[in-house]
Amino acid sequence: MAFRFAHRPRARLLVGSLAGLIAGAGYGSALALSRLTYDHGFTPAGLSLLRYVSLILVLGIWLAVTGRFRRVRPRVLGTMLLLGVFSFMITVFNLSSIVYIPVSLTTIVFYTHPALVVLATAAVLRIPVNPVEFAAVAAAFCGLFIALEVSFTALHPLGLAFAMGAALTCAVMYVVTNRVLDATDFVEATFYMAVGAAVLSALALVPEGGMAVPESLEGLMLVALVTVLFMIAITTMFLAIELVGSVPTAMLTNVEPLTAIAVAVTVLGEPLPLAVGFGAFLVISAILLMQASRAQRGASESARTSINPPARVFGRRPRR
What we know:
By secondary structure, the protein is an all-alpha fold. The protein has twelve helices and no strands. The protein has helices at 9-37, 44-65, 74-97, 103-110, 113-125, 131-147, 157-180, 186-205, 217-244, 246-252, 255-267, 274-307.
């Protein structure tokens, strides 16, 4: 996919940005609707296993039909499975955090990960990050702070530790994903990531005695919808990282909590205070600001890429 856009930097930026926004919207919608699945007997571990197994089946069929299953180097395979561990850990940390502190506080702490991605990218990958991007991260953080109307009246050290653990794990996952996509493509990476996460989700179900299945048609349709939204979100997230990088993708997925708020208002009937709308405006403005900065700064880099395009198509060298 990245090779197809090698000579079309604007298309690469557009598709990558759109994929990042879709990922954030998918995650946010799935997050808000997941709460309803618990009313039908599902548990976080059961829902997690269903999502990852569905993802494995769909991507596995795609890789098999297109003939893209290949022998993966052990180091690359191990890294992709490690991404599944990170994905599972993020879920566990977030679910554990809300036991001790408000959900809004958990969310705002978790969404420090874009700033952490910026710092990690600059330090580890030695990719320069300009002041505009740092300012955009700060603006997005402030917007989320306002939109989620965070209350610091109930602080618990363990809850904050879990939330920060989720943020740190997410930042590491973005950076590692950015590196692993140098050796593979987003479809293969997502597939093996799902395998690693599915194994851990299955193990987490053991103490619960197995997965509960909703008895009503409404429950089954709701679980199916949440699963599809998650599959779309995680696949487009990996695509966005491949096309535009980890830092822009982390910023673009900041629409996740805003989408969750919108779904909560329309589906769950929760009120929408003015502060939430203003916070949403700040987040979207920050995303547009950073993408505009990336587009302008990447003109010369894209020109160099067009002269020496990546020599792979979905993990293989292009045929001559």
